[in-house]
Structures are given as C-alpha cells and as structure tokens.
Amino acid sequence: MTDARQNLERCFALCHERAWRLAAGLLQDSNEAFDTVQQAFLVAAGKPDKVPADNPWPWFAQVVVNEARNQRRKKRPRPDGDAMVDLPMSGSTDPAGNAARNEQAANLRRALDDLPGHEREALVLTHFGGMTHAEAGAALGLPTKTVSTHVSRGLQRLRGRLGGKSEEMLAAFAAIPLMQPPGGWESAVAAWKGAAISGMAVPAATAATGGLLLAKNTLIAAGIALAIGLAGGAGLYNVLGTHDHRTAPPVQPGAADTTASKATAAAASRDNDTTAQADDSGKLRADLASALAREEALRKERDRLATVAASAATERDTLRASVERLSGELEPFRAEAALKGPTFTFGRFGAIEGVTKSDWKELGSASRIVAECIREIHEYRSKGQQAPRETHIRLQQHTELVRKYEYKTIQVLPTWARHNGELTHPISHSNLIAGELKAAGLALDEAQVKRIEALGLAYEADFEAAQKKYGDSTLRCEKLLDEYLLKGVFVDAVWDLLTPDQRGLFVKPETLHVAGVDLYCPTLMLVHTSPVLTGADMAEVRGKLRAALLERFKIAPDHHAALDLLLEQWQGDCAEIAGAVPRTIARNYTYAQSVIALRAHIKLYKAVRDTCSLENEPRAALIDDYTVYIPRVLEP
To answer: Interior CA angle at 67 toward 57 and 117, to 5°?
Structure first.
C-alpha cells in the first residue's frame, strides 16, 4: 500500500465519526451532512499526499468546514416545521424526558442558526467537534485569539437567547447520542469509504461523480456552441456551397484581378477555419468519449464495491453467528476457568505462580472439608470421645490438597512463622474464602472484592513498615507478634464485609478464633510450634517453663535466681489466662489468649537476653526462636 493510500486510510479511520458529528452540527440536516462528509473524503482522495500522516483531524476538519460552507450556500430554505426533522433522539426509555431533551435541543439549534456564521462555526468546532481553540483556528484559517473571541461572543448571544443557560445546553446537546446518517451508520461508512477509495483510482479532476457529470455536460454544451458557430452566417453559406450568382455583387471594371485575388484568399481562409473547426470538433468528441468511458468505469467500480460490501456484510453476519455459537459453547469452560482462577491478585504477591496457577476451586473445596472434619473431631474431643477413623482419613486427604498450594508459596510469601504463615497471608486467605463462596453460590460482589483488595494492600504496607524498625537484636517472636496482630485485623475486617449468609459459611460463634478449630484465624500460625504447658496450677506450669529455658539456652547457675524472678513476672503477666480448663480442650486456646501469651513471652525473652549472660550460640538461638509457650491450668 502506498504512503498516500495509507494516509487516506488513516484519515478515514480516525476522522469519519468526528467528521459526521461536525457536519451534522454545522448543517443540522442529515442528508446535507452526509453529502458534506462524502465530498470531504473525495477532496482528501484527490489530495492524498496533503493528508497529514500523524494527526489528520485538524487538516480534515478544515476540509469539512469548507464543504459545509458550500452546502449552506446551496441550501434551499425550508419551512419552519421541517427545521428540526433531524433532531437526535435520547437513548432513554422515558418519553417525557426524551421530549424535554428534544425541545431543549431544538431551542439550541434555532439559537445557533441565528448566530453569525463565524461564531456558529467556532462554537460547533469547539463544543461539538471536541477541538481546542488552536485546532479550531487551524481548521477555520483564523488566529487562535480570533476563535476565542468568536466563541465568547457566540456564548453571549446564546445566553441572551436561552436565558443564561447556554453552556449547560451546549454540554447537554453534545452529550445526546449522535443522530444516524441516512440509511444507517454502517451503510454510510461503507459509502464514504468506497467513494474515497474510488476517488484515488481516477484523476483528481474527475474523482467525484458530480465533477465527472459536470465535465460531460460542459463538453456537450461546447459541442453545441461550436456546431451553431459553424452553421451561422457566411461560414454556413460557404460550407454548404450554395452560392447564388443572382445575389452576388457585380465586379467593378478594372478590379477583376483584385477581386479574384481577394476571393481566393477568402476561400483559403474559410478552408483553414473549416479545417480548424473540424479538428476542434473531433477533439471535443474524443474528450466526450473519454469522459463517458471514465464515467462508465466509475459506475462499474461503484457496482463492484457494492458487491464487495454486500459480500463483506454477509461474511460479517456469518462470522458473527459463528462467534455467538462458539461463545455459547465456550461459556461452560469460561465459567469453570472463573471458578478455578484466583479472585484476588493484589499487591506484590498477587502475580506469583502459587496464586495464578493454583486451582482455587479445588483448594476452596478442600479447605471447606478440612474445616468440617476439624470441627467434627473437636466436638468428639469435647465429649471425651474419639472421632471416627473415616473422619481422620478424610481430613488427611484434603489437607494434602491444601498443602499443594503451601508448597508453592513457602519462602515466597513473607512470614516470621515456622508453619502456616503462607496460608494465613491475606492473598491466600482472601482467595480461599472467595473459592468457597463461589462453590456455595454466594460469590463476593464487586464492591466486596474492591474492599478486600484495599484491606490486603493495607496489610502489605503495614507489614513492610514494621520490617524497617527491626534491628539485629530484635526477637523473632516480637516480629511474629506484629505479623500476628496485622493478620488478626485483616481477618476480622473481612468477616465484617460479608453478608450474614456468606459469614455463616466460615464463622461459627462457638469456634471463632479458637486454635486448632478455626482454620481462618491467625492461630493457625502457632498450633504446630507453640507448646502448651499444662499443670495443676501456674506454679507447676512455671516449673516446666524454667526447665525448658535452662536446657535450651544453657543459662549458667549463677543466673538461675535472676531467671526465677523473671518467671514470677511472666506468671503475673499470664494471670488473665490462668483459669482452669478441661484437659480435652487444653490445646484449643483462643486468639486473644495467645496474644496475651505472646506479649508475656516476648517480655520474658527480652529480660533473659538482657539479664542472663548467654553464650553466642544460645543467644542467637533465643533471638531467632519462634517458639511461644502457652500456659494452661487443667481442671482437677
């Protein structure tokens, strides 16, 4: 494709809709606007090298304005009743609202028609054509300041005519759906493009059919005039050879030679004129034949393009039907893919393979079954009974399915927990509950999704901010507490966003935030790494903790007394959770109880670090220790 053809194609693709809106706004008549746009594209086709390659609209807008001016000069006056025949209709189904909007548009059109031409053109280009004052100035061939003046004065006149609401009416009128060209939008676009492309196939002088017909009529008129000239006066007399001796003037004596000489010269002149006229007549006939041939070629090209357009329309309809059929066939697969794919991909970790490649339908279903099995086992234990073996097997099978995700995200999702920090991360938690809700027919709505995304992003920001305050001596369990608290806030905020039916799928009042039973609670981070220290009273529990610390951190004997004082303080810090519990549920502490235990544990570890002289290796082990001791006093 040549550069000129590419320029024309780009001009058509970028400008045809804006050209129609501009022509319709200038002329307010769909038929005249149609002709104006078509003639503008014919002009562009005749000058393809002048079409700007980067942004053709300002140049083409000027062409449209010029052609619209020509149309207005040729425009016949119409009765007032016909002036609004092309008024665009609103897309609303409210008849009263449509009538009011159409009346408003009619008032504005009448007011625009009453404006001076230069003010009307400036307003239409800037308010309906979407052009800046500078672009409108380029299109109208005026300085930008002059255009701004025309716009300002036009608005003043409209305010006087429309009661001070000109800007609002212009904005409302520009927002009304664009009126359709005659024959419909698709037909008009095909006609404009066909005419433009055809215009490149013939010389510029005959690019438009109207121009060709004018050339033909001019040639015919010239032929008639020439024929009349040949047939009139002495020319006709001599050409026909009907000289009458009776009417010939007598020859004077003594002038015979002169008369004969003059007659001979006149005859030669007439012969030359006749020959020249015959040559002109032959050339005229040849030009006329050539023009008619070009017109016939254009007609055939038009018919060919019409056939091509009809064929393309048929092919389009066939393809559209095929697309609809295939879309229907693919719908079940799309629905299945939607169930499997992640609902949430927010933040730094939303695009990791564990999130994007996992089957969240399977994970959500497996998580649902694991939660049911754990609740069932907990109920049996609360009664001092053993759950059925089948329940334990089912629990193990579906736990392995959930672990497939955990294996993909270990050391990818950041956490200070030894186990289950990945599963309790907001990107994991939110996708798990979204998968379960989809499977249950209670999917999250768009507003819920956006709110949960915002909560997840807030968690990431707070988690990153917390990391910046840590130093070499910061305890790992201190970092763990920060993460633990942030995840607790996230989980509770998500539950608050759910409807009662959605929340009921996850939240059971008797097991909410209970370790080992509530799989959606951050306590999942502690259940495998936080020993539950049990005893008949807190003194026994404290003794077990003392033995554990002495063994793990090799505390020297001369610091045992100091350690005993620290353990007494720890016992006091845990007094709030020192109530007796049944042995069967001793491991099922709550989230709130674990926060108290964590804070008391951190305080104890800091004191041991700063008070007891530890060797380098035990000191490093204490700083990096993720163990949290949970005290539980057993009922007798």
So the answer is: 95
Closest CA to 47 of 200, 211, 213: 200
Cα–Cα distance for residue pair 220/285, rounded to 1 Å: 9
Q: What pLDDT score does 264 carry?
A: 53
CA angle, residues 180, 183, 188, in degrees to nearest 5: 75
> What is the C-alpha to C-alpha distance for residues 376 and 370, in angstroms, rounded to an integer?
10
Question: For residue 189, what are the contacts with CB-CB under 8 A and spacing of at least 6?
Answer: 16
Cβ atoms of residues 531 and 595 within 8 Å: no
- 311 phi and psi angles, rounded to 5 deg: -65, -40
Tokens of residue 364, six digits: 């959500």
Give the C-alpha separation, 433 to 503, whole Å. Answer: 10
How many CB atoms lie under 10 A from the CB of residue 98?
A: 14
pLDDT along the chain (636 residues), means of 10: 79 90 86 92 89 89 92 66 41 59 74 84 80 84 90 85 66 59 85 77 44 35 36 34 39 45 53 59 75 85 91 90 81 70 94 93 90 90 89 91 90 94 95 92 95 97 96 96 97 96 92 93 94 95 96 94 96 95 93 97 96 93 95 95
What number of residues does the chain have? 636
Sort residue 106 into left (φ over 0), alpha (ψ -120 to 50) or beta.
alpha
- b/e burial code for range 36-51 (CB count within 10 A of at least 16 → b): bbbbbbbbbbbbbeeb
Residue 216: predicted pLDDT = 35
Tokens of 105: 């548009």
State the CB neighbour count (10 A cutoff) for residue 134.
14
**Could you give the CA distance from residue 607 to residue 572 in angstroms, rounded to a whole number?**
15
Of 27, 38, 137, the C-alpha closest to 75 is: 27
Nearby residues of 408 by Cβ (< 8 Å), 6 or more positions away: 352, 353, 354, 357, 358
Give the amino acid at 533. Answer: L
For residue 633, the 8-state DSSP code is E
Provide the pLDDT for residue 414: 96
Q: Report the pLDDT value the prediction gives residue 389, as an integer from 0 to 100.
A: 93
| Closest by CA position to 191, among listed 274, 310, 52 | 310
Contact predicate 124/22, CB 8 Å = yes
**DSSP characters for 178-207?**
PPPPTT-HHHHHHHHHHHHHHHHSS-GGGS
CA-based nearest residue to 364, from 380, 384, 344, 381? 344
d(CA 408, CA 401): 12
- Give, in order, the Cα–Cα distances in Å from 599 to each of 419, 621, 630: 20, 19, 11
Distances in whole angstroms, Cα of residue 238 to Cα of each of 268, 277, 312, 544: 11, 14, 63, 145
Cβ proximity of 606 and 515 under 8 Å: no
As given in the structure block, the two tokens for residue 522 are: 């951050």
Residues 6+ apart with CB under 8 A from 284: 219, 222, 223, 226
Specify which residues 256 forms β-bridges with: none
The answer to whether 48 and 197 have CB atoms below 8 angstroms apart is no
The model's pTM is 0.51
Q: Where are the domains of the chain?
A: 3-200, 203-221+268-339, 353-525, 532-634
